[in-house]
C-alpha cells in the first residue's frame, strides 16, 4: 500500500466534510529499523470550511478543494469512519504494516514532532500525551503507527516544501510505469522551484518510485503553484488521482549538531572534524574516511553516491570538514548524506632526497621529518633540503551532495541551502 494513497481514499470517503488547509505529508526519523520504506505520516484537517477554497487535487473527475480556515469536525465521528477505510485497504499481512489513526481537535505539543523526526519515540509516551490532550486513537498490530499519526499532527513548520503526487489507475497497480523521461527533463528545465526530478549523472527518473505502489510520480518543490503546472507537463499513462501536500521533505529537520562522542545509533548528526587517515576504498567500491574531533569515527560514502564518493577519495589528512549523516551501530560509522569541505591542507610531496655535498651521493632518510644522512660519509642534512613540489588539490572548499537518485526524503538539496 501507500500512506499518501490512503490519504486520497480518506478524502474521497469524507467528501461530506471540507478539507481545512492542505493535506500534510510528514517524514519522520529515516533511521528507525522498523519503519516503513519512507516513514511517512499523513495529517488531514476536516471540518466546515470558511473563506474562498482552492484546488489541491483531483479524484477521477472530481476536484479536491481546501479552505484556508474552518470549524473542526467531531473527532468521535471521524475516527470510526477513518478506521473502516483503513481496514478495507491496509496490507496487514506485511510485517512492517502497523497502522495507527489519531483524531483530535487539539494538536499534541510540537516537541513530539521534533523527537519523532530525530530520535526513537516510545508508544507509551505518545499515548500518555494523547490522553492529556483528549484525543481518540486506534492502533493495529504493534500500534507504532500511532506515533507517526500523532507526530504529523504536532508538526508546526519552520521550513516547508510541497509535493504533488499523481496516482495510477488501480488496474495498473503492479505493472511497469509508463512515463516519458524526456518530459521529466523538460519539466525540470522549465521549472524554477522544483527539485530532485531527474538524475543527470545516471539518467534515473527520480520522480517515479521503484516500488509497486499506487504512486505514478511525485514532484517536490518550493512553489505550490508551480507544482500544479509541473504535474501537467509529465507525459505517460493516465493520472487516476492526484493530490498536493504540504511537507517537511527537503528540510533536514532530522539533523542534530553533535560531537563525534555524542553520536547515537538510529539518529542523524552534523559533525565538524578533521580527516585523520587517508580515504580507504573497501570491497563494493565504498569509501571510508576516518575523521576526528578528539574522538574518532569512520565516515562512509557508499558506491551508489557515485561522484560524491569520488570527492571523498580526494580528502587528505588534516582537511577540515563538516559532515551530515546517519549513525550506524555495527560497525559504528557515520553514513554521509552531505559534506562541506571547510579547509584544505597543502598537497606538498617530496620528489627526491638531497645529494650529499661531500660525495655527491643521494642521502637516505633518518625517519619521518628527521632529516637525511649520507650512507657513505655520514654527513647530515635537514628535512627541508629535499626537493618538494606543491600539487593542485582535486577538491575545493564548499558543499557537496550525492546525486539525486541517492538522496533521502529529508535531504535538503544545495539549491535550498539558503532557506
The CATH class of the largest domain is identified as: Alpha Beta
Amino-to-carboxy terminus distance? 33 Å
Let me know the largest β-sheet: 11 strands, mixed
Radius of gyration, CA atoms, in whole angstroms: 27 Å
Identify low-pLDDT runs: none
Strand content: 25-35%
Number of strands: 28
Helix/strand-derived class? alpha+beta
Helicity, in percent? 10-25%
CATH architecture of the largest domain, by name, is 2-Layer Sandwich
CATH topology of the largest domain: Alpha-Beta Plaits
User: How confident overall, as mean pLDDT?
Assistant: 95
How many domains would you count in the coordinates?
Answer: 4
Structure write-up:
It contains eight helices and 28 strands. It is an alpha+beta fold. The protein has four domains: about 5-155, Alpha-Beta Plaits; about 160-245, Glycinamide Ribonucleotide Synthetase, Chain A, domain 4 (Alpha-Beta Complex), CATH 3.90.600; about 255-345 and about 395-415, OB fold (Dihydrolipoamide Acetyltransferase, E2P); about 350-390. The strands form six sheets. Strands 1, 2, 3, 4, 5, 6, 7, 10, 11, 14 and 15 form an eleven-stranded mixed beta sheet that branches. It has a five-stranded mixed β-barrel with strand order 17-19-20-22-21. Helix 1 (about 5-15) packs across helix 2 (about 75-90) and helix 3 crosses helix 5. The radius of gyration is 27 Å and the shape is elongated.
Amino acid at each position: 500500500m501507500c500512506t499518501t494513497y490512503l490519504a486520497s481514499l480518506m478524502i474521497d470517503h469524507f467528501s461530506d466534510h471540507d478539507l481545512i488547509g492542505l493535506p500534510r505529508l510528514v517524514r519522520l526519523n529515516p533511521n528507525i529499523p522498523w519503519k516503513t520504506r519512507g516513514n511517512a505520516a499523513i495529517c488531514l484537517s476536516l471540518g466546515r470550511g470558511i473563506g474562498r477554497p482552492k484546488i489541491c487535487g483531483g479524484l477521477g473527475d472530481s476536484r479536491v478543494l481546501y479552505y484556508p480556515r474552518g470549524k473542526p469536525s467531531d473527532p468521535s465521528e471521524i475516527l470510526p469512519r477513518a478506521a473502516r477505510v483503513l481496514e478495507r485497504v491496509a496490507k496487514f499481512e506485511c510485517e512492517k504494516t502497523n497502522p495507527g489513526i489519531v483524531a483530535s481537535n487539539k494538536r499534541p505539543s510540537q516537541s513530539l514532532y521534533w523527537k519523532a523526526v530525530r530520535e526513537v519515540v516510545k508508544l507509551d509516551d505518545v499515548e500518555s500525551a494523547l490522553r492529556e490532550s483528549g484525543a481518540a486513537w486506534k492502533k493495529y498490530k504493534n500500534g507504532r503507527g500511532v506515533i507517526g499519526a500523532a507526530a504529523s499532527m504536532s508538526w508546526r513548520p519552520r521550513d516547508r516544501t510541497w509535493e504533488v503526487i499523481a496516482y495510477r489507475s488501480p488496474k495498473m497497480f503492479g505493472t511497469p510505469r509508463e512515463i516519458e523521461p524526456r518530459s521529466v527533463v523538460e519539466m525540470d528545465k522549465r521549472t524554477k522551484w522544483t527539485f530532485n526530478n531527474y538524475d543527470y549523472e545516471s539518467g534515473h527518473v527520480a520522480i517515479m518510485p521503484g516500488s509497486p505502489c499506487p504512486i505514478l510520480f511525485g514532484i517536490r518543490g518550493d512553489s505550490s503553484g508551480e507544482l500544479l503546472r509541473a504535474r501537467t507537463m509529465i507525459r505517460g499513462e493516465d493520472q487516476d488521482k492526484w493530490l498536493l501536500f504540504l511537507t517537511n521533505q527537503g528540510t533536514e529537520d532530522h539533523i542534530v549538531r553533535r560531537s563525534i562522542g555524542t553520536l547515537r545509533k538510529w539518529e542523524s548528526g552534523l559533525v565538524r572534524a578533521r580527516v585523520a587517515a587517508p580515504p580507504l576504498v573497501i570491497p563494493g567500491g565504498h569509501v571510508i574516511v576516518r575523521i576526528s574531533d578528539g574522538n574518532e569515527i569512520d565516515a562512509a560514502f557508499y558506491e551508489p553516491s557515485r561522484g560524491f564518493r569520488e570527492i571523498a577519495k580526494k580528502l587528505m589528512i588534516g582537511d577540515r570538514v563538516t559532515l551530515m549523516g546517519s549513525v550506524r551501530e555495527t560497525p559504528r560509522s557515520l553514513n554521509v548524506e552531505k559534506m562541506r569541505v571547510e579547509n584544505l591542507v597543502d598537497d606538498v610531496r617530496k620528489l627526491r632526497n638531497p645529494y650529499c655535498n661531500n660525495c655527491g651521493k643521494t642521502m637516505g632518510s633518518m625517519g619521518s621529518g628527521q632529516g637525511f644522512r649520507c650512507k657513505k660519509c655520514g654527513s647530515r642534512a635537514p628535512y627541508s633540503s629535499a626537493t618538494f613540489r606543491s600539487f593542485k588539490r582535486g577538491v575545493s572548499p564548499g558543499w557537496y551532495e550525492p546525486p539525486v537518485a541517492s538522496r533521502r526524503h529529508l535531504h535538503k538539496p544545495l539549491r535550498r541551502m539558503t532557506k
